[in-house]
Write a structure and sequence with these properties.
single chain; 430 residues; mainly alpha; Arc Repressor Mutant, subunit A; Alpha-lytic protease prodomain-like; two-stranded antiparallel sheet; 68% helix
């Protein structure tokens, strides 16, 4: 029977590490991987990054604090509100007690056990990221999710009589086939053919959805178990939203247009689910209601779904028509969100640099390169995540944008804040 302390440390991080391949023969300091994992789970999440920094060289308290601050800044300014020098001192003391680090001559070093943890992380992080962010993984995940959701939606559609849920279930079933073809296209380097098929099948599914809506208008039937159907539709929509973000991130990372096409379709499913919920709920009010339009709300949701799919088809056809050398841009909310986050991150950094006085572009370029290109946390370099520009090219575009929006001014070749920054850390600059 697992006691409370053991349950406490069986975290998602430890589960992930146990899924990665390793051999007990590799252990030199720790008794087993299990013991090492338990120690790692007792440390704060950000401390993993500090262990990797200490693997390079011993660091003083101030240097460790700067490293932690730099990491928290890249993750998002809201993280720093919970971080302080006192917090770091407490975590360092705990790490000393666990035998991970030791302090010598005002500098912290890794112990043999800490060095073994660092070696383990340097091997496992790229391995895990390579598996999790691979095209093969996202294709298999998409297939499983679509099979599951089409099964659930069609069963509840049959029970409730919801045309909107039938339409959404049909679309999910079609996407199951599309997901299999994308997987085959990735495997055999035929992604363009898979992309074309996805667009064609999206067009076919739009026709099926329109037919389901038309049938509901011609042969209206009351919706039963409406609340249950609405809840099921919403939960399925949330799953599709998460899948869409995952698909887009991997499609963008691996330059896979076929996977990005899937992300657009999955995004549509989320909005579709909201429409289906609205249609089902409004349809429930038809009983005893003099408003005739309420009776057809569920059918109207199906037709709106059809229009959404057709809009996506047109956008994707335009991108497919581009020449092989042209960059393909896929409209997706996650891309917009990432851009806003990057803009906010750069503006917050710029605000700190200009707080003491105006600086010319050359000075800002040097500081930008050092902060974002040279001082990248090791954990970000290993994982491939986060904002990691190769040069200061991004800075020029954002300086022009901030000047245009009046939040930064250019005077005599030097940039300065137009007015004192009053936004809270983490506020997105729009």
């Amino acid at each position: 029977m697992m006691d409370r302390s053991e349950r406490k440390h069986k975290t998602p991080r430890s589960i992930v590490r146990r899924l990665l391949p390793h051999s007990a023969d590799e252990m030199k300091h720790w008794e087993s991987f299990g013991v090492m994992h338990e120690v790692m789970d007792k440390l704060e999440g950000y401390f993993t990054a500090l262990i990797l920094e200490l693997a390079e060289k011993p660091l003083s308290f101030d240097e460790l604090y700067e490293s932690a601050e730099r990491l928290h800044e890249r993750l998002g300014a809201h993280h720093r509100e919970k971080f302080s020098r006192g917090k770091l001192a407490s975590d360092l003391e705990a790490a000393v007690g666990y035998g991970v680090i030791e302090k010598k001559c005002e500098a912290y070093n890794l112990t043999p056990g800490g060095a073994e943890i660092a070696e383990h992380l340097q091997r496992m992080i790229p391995l895990f990221m390579g598996k999790f962010f691979s095209s093969r993984t996202v294709c298999i995940t998409s297939i499983v999710v679509h099979i599951l959701l089409s099964f659930v939606k069609l069963i509840f559609a049959a029970v409730s009589g919801s045309a909107g849920l039938v339409a959404d279930g049909i679309d999910n079933s079609v996407d199951t086939v599309s997901s299999v073809l994308v997987w085959l296209g990735v495997k055999f380097n035929r992604e363009k053919a898979a992309s074309i098929f996805i667009v064609i099948m999206m067009f076919v599914s739009a026709g099926c959805v329109a037919l389901a809506g038309y049938n509901k208008i011609i042969n209206p039937e009351p919706i039963t178990e409406g609340i249950t159907a609405a809840v099921v539709s919403f939960l399925c929509g949330v799953m599709m939203l998460v899948l869409s973000i995952y698909q887009y991130a991997i499609g963008k990372r691996n330059s896979s247009f076929a996977i990005m096409c899937q992300a657009v379709d999955s995004r549509n499913h989320f909005f579709v689910s909201l429409l289906v919920c609205a249609g089902i709920i409004l349809g429930r009010f038809e009983q005893g209601s003099p408003a005739l339009w309420l009776y057809y709300a569920d059918a109207a949701a199906s037709l709106v779904i059809c229009l959404l799919i057709l809009k996506s088809v047109i956008e994707l056809v335009i991108e497919l028509a581009k020449s092989p050398g042209e960059e393909k841009r896929v409209s997706h909310f996650w891309s917009t969100t990432q851009e806003r986050m990057k803009r906010s991150l750069i503006f917050e950094w710029l605000s700190k640099e200009l707080d003491a006085g105006a600086l010319d572009e050359k000075a800002l370029e040097a500081r930008f390169s050092k902060h974002f290109c040279e001082d990248t946390p090791k954990i970000m370099a290993l994982s491939g995540l986060g904002y990691r520009p190769e040069n200061s090219e991004d800075l020029h575009g954002y300086l022009e944008l901030f000047v245009k929006r009046g939040i930064v001014r250019l005077d005599g070749g030097k940039y300065a804040l137009a007015k004192p920054v009053t936004h809270k850390p983490g506020t997105v600059v729009t």
